[in-house]
Design a protein that fits this description.
The complex is a heterodimer of chains A (about 500) and B (about 230).
Chain A (H helix, E strand, L loop, with lengths): L2 E8 L9 H10 L7 H10 L7 E4 L6 E5 L10 H14 L2 E8 L2 H10 L8 E5 L5 H6 L10 H9 L13 H7 L2 H11 L16 E10 L2 H21 L2 E12 L4 E12 L2 H14 L6 E13 H7 L7 H18 L4 E6 L9 E5 L4 H4 L13 E2 L22 E14 L5 E6 L2 E15 L9 E9 L4 E7 L5 E6 L2
Parallel strand pairs in A: 4-5
Antiparallel strand pairs in A: 1-3, 1-4, 2-3, 6-9, 7-8, 7-9, 10-11, 12-15, 13-14, 13-18, 14-15, 15-16, 16-17, 17-18
Helix pairs in contact in A: 4-8, 9-10, 10-12
Chain B lengths: L2 H16 L7 E2 L4 H6 L5 E2 L3 E6 L6 H12 L6 E5 L18 E5 L3 H13 L5 E5 L5 H14 L2 E7 L11 E7 L7 E9 L7 E5 L11 E2 L1 H7 L1
Parallel strand pairs in B: 3-7, 3-8, 4-5, 4-6, 6-7
Antiparallel strand pairs in B: 1-2, 8-9, 9-10
Classes of the chains: A alpha+beta (about 500), B alpha/beta (about 230).
Chain lengths: ~500, ~230
């Protein structure tokens, strides 16, 4: 995707050009330098010759016209030729224009608004080569990220006047200390998270619906209706070479209540049988609570078929198996819910309960961020305490210490009867059963940061029990209570 | 019936059972010492393997995870069906291919059974690991058949006080921990194998990573015993 951001202003000088449309534009210039609502719509209509997907982003002084020129630039002979044509287009309309072209909306907007001078020139254009948005952003002020006033003020208060110093910081540290909009805007500007903007002309909504004269109460009848509707729904997409990525099913009850559910797909499809299967799976968990009088299927998200197939599963060799895998993920997510089918994202958080995050598979891959690489430095403090309880000088790197394969969802309180002077447990009772500790390792002190609220301070011990099993215990330093937290199974 | 006839019948049964499904090949269990214990020299793809232990903390999940990783070693995805919400990915070593790991969190038993069945039927899946203690043995039979379709290795960790009578899995292994101080060891017993004779036992060392905690301390009881 290549986004061109046009920051436009109306000139106050010169004679109106000959074209009737631009004459009225110039007339408007006498009232305001920033295009107003009606004028925006006409400018958007006019600029459609450069791209079918255009929209206004932002409001007031920061409003900009954004175009996705990725698919159309080659038709003009390349980006440079397109930009030249656009220059002529703005001059014809006596518009002052600051233009930026980049891979992402965030980067293009930032450069167009904060690139050089804030005052719009007659024509100023900067093209960010593909993949170079990070370098372009680094020198821009934090205001270029389109953050709220409070976040911008907080950043400046902490000495972050420019975006560059923020980029290498651990994501977890930023997430802990700043509102979520900061990471979101950075990710959007870098292209890690897609950013949508409202299109000037809404894309056609694909939907198909059916209403009964009476009502139906059986799932079989509803499925038969979907079977009838799906081919109608898919045909226009088939003609455009696109597939369904998210499908809404909406049922209208006799009492006019609407019940909806959404089926997501790992990769877009036009397979009516597969979609019907996913709808049926979901219907098993969403039972009909009352007779229904109508149903509607709508495509909430569509994607090009071929592109998605190339991007996802590039690492899985046989395409047939990739298809099978995608089907599995979709079926599991369809019946159990998206939140139940997750990939593992390690988190640099030493609180064991928060050391990983389950990210639903049915999300754009870029936003999942599941990596296999080492975890970055933690914003939390972690100490490996000596036997005497004094914290060691060096923080232990993540993954250096064994973790249990099974972690209890909630730490289970235990009664510890005997504790060595160094703090090691020797005997405890759990679930009415007494356990003898033969050997133990620790303590490993884990603490959370003050900014998270009431801090946790725990001394963890790995314990070998007299029956050979190994468990993970901790003592809460604040209360002195002991808990069983996991098993090295 | 003479011993020779019995032996002949056993051999015929093994042959029939071994040809029941498509031959998907054999993968390592992830540990050489375990492979030597197994009749096929590893885990047969398209089969179900049970890891029995009396209680959590015995090491069964660690062995099953090693096997899962090995079965998914050629770029295949793996699935963990987590019924109890106990599975803890930070226990995996840092070089685990997390991008190919799918975790399914189930709230009910029937969901977990269905999820395992679906995953085991999926072509291209390397391994499916789940922990289910009380499960109808016929369900395991269904999983075995599902695995035979796809070539996936099903790994079922079960914490049971008593071993179930019926067995539909290709292998049933009993994991018993050792309380010896020092390097962690478990004994692994082959309780049941479709091919080969059960009863063999090996001792397996489970690695604890090198870590920078203070050295272990012995309890007063052990110190007293040592003195």
């Amino acid at each position: 995707m290549r986004i061109l951001c046009l920051r436009l202003r109306l000139r106050h000088d010169g004679e109106p050009p000959g074209r009737e449309r631009t004459a009225s534009l110039h007339h408007a210039a006498a009232r305001a330098t920033v295009p107003d609502g009606a004028l925006r719509a006409r400018l958007a209509d006019d600029v459609e010759e450069f791209s079918p997907l255009i929209g206004w982003v932002g409001a007031g002084e920061s409003a900009s016209l954004c175009l996705d020129v990725g698919p159309t630039a080659h038709g003009f002979g390349g980006e440079a030729a397109l930009v030249e044509r656009l220059r002529a287009w703005t001059e014809q309309r006596r518009l002052l224009a600051t233009v930026a072209l980049a891979d992402t909306l965030g980067a293009a907007w930032a450069v167009a608004h904060c690139g050089e001078s804030e005052e719009p020139a007659t024509w100023r254009c900067r093209v960010i080569p593909p993949g170079r948005q990070a370098a372009a952003l680094a020198t821009l002020p934090v205001a270029a990220l389109r953050l709220s006033f409070g976040t911008t003020a907080l950043l400046q208060e902490l000495g972050f006047s420019h975006i560059g110093p923020l980029l290498p910081l651990p994501r977890e540290a930023l997430a802990e200390r700043f509102p979520p909009e900061l990471l979101l805007r950075i990710d959007q500007a870098l292209g890690k998270v897609p950013e949508l903007f409202a299109a000037h002309r809404p894309l056609p909504v694909w939907e198909a619906k059916l209403a009964w004269e009476g009502s139906i109460a059986s799932a079989e009848s509803l499925v038969a209706a979907w079977q009838h509707l799906l081919p109608q729904l898919l045909e226009p997409l088939r003609q455009r070479g696109r597939g369904v990525a998210r499908l809404l099913a909406e049922q209208t009850g006799e009492s006019h209540t609407l019940r909806r559910f959404v089926v997501g797909l790992l990769r877009p499809t036009l397979d009516a049988d597969h979609l019907l299967g996913l709808l049926q799976l979901r219907l098993e968990t969403e039972r009909l609570r009352e007779p229904i009088v109508g149903t509607r299927l709508a495509v909430l998200e569509e994607s090009p078929l071929a592109v998605q197939q190339q991007v996802l599963f590039a690492d899985l060799a046989p395409p047939v198996e990739s298809q099978a895998w995608a089907t599995l993920v979709e079926r599991l997510s369809g019946r159990l819910g998206h939140e139940a089918v997750v990939r593992v994202r390690p988190r640099a958080d030493h609180q064991p309960e928060r050391a990983w995050q389950g990210v639903p598979w049915l999300q754009p891959r870029e936003t999942n961020g599941a990596t296999n690489g080492p975890v970055k430095a933690s914003p939390l403090r972690k100490r490996s305490a000596s036997r005497q309880g004094a914290p060691a000088a060096d923080a232990v790197p993540s993954h250096a210490l064994p973790r249990p394969t099974l972690l209890l969802p909630r730490p289970q309180p235990i009664r510890v009867f005997a504790v060595a002077p160094q703090g090691h447990p020797h005997r405890f009772e759990s679930g009415g059963r007494e356990q003898q500790v033969v050997e133990s390792w620790g303590p490993e002190r884990l603490e959370t940061g003050w900014w998270r609220g009431p801090s946790l301070r725990r001394d963890y011990f790995r314990a070998l029990l007299d029956d050979g099993r190994r468990c993970w215990l901790f003592r809460e330093l604040r209360s002195g209570r002991w808990f069983l937290h996991g098993w090295f199974d | 019936m003479t011993p020779n006839t019995l032996e002949q019948l056993r051999e015929d049964l093994r042959r029939v059972e071994s040809n029941a499904g498509k031959a998907w090949g054999v993968v390592s269990s992830g540990r050489e010492v375990v492979d030597r214990l197994l009749p096929a020299g590893g885990l047969r793809r398209g089969t179900l393997v049970e890891w029995l232990a009396s209680e959590p903390g015995s090491g069964a999940t660690t062995l099953a995870l090693d096997a899962a990783r090995s079965a998914a070693g050629d770029g295949r995805p793996m699935v963990v069906v987590d019924r109890r919400g106990w599975f803890y990915p930070p226990a995996l070593s840092i070089d685990w291919p997390l991008e190919r790991l799918l975790v399914v969190r189930c709230r009910r038993d029937d969901e977990a059974f269905w999820a395992c069945d679906q995953a085991l039927r999926t072509s291209g899946v390397g391994a499916v690991l789940t922990q289910c203690d009380a499960v109808d043995e016929r369900r395991l039979r269904c999983w075995q058949l599902a695995a035979e379709q796809s070539g996936a290795v099903g790994l079922v960790v079960r914490h049971l006080a008593r071993q179930p009578e019926a067995c539909f899995s290709d292998l049933r292994l009993l994991v018993a921990p050792s309380c010896a101080v020092g390097r962690r060891r478990v004994s692994l017993t082959l309780l049941r194998a479709r091919q080969g004779r059960p009863g063999a036992v090996v001792e397996v060392a489970l690695d604890d990573h090198a870590y920078s905690l203070p050295p272990p301390t012995a309890s007063p009881r052990r110190r007293a015993a040592g003195a």
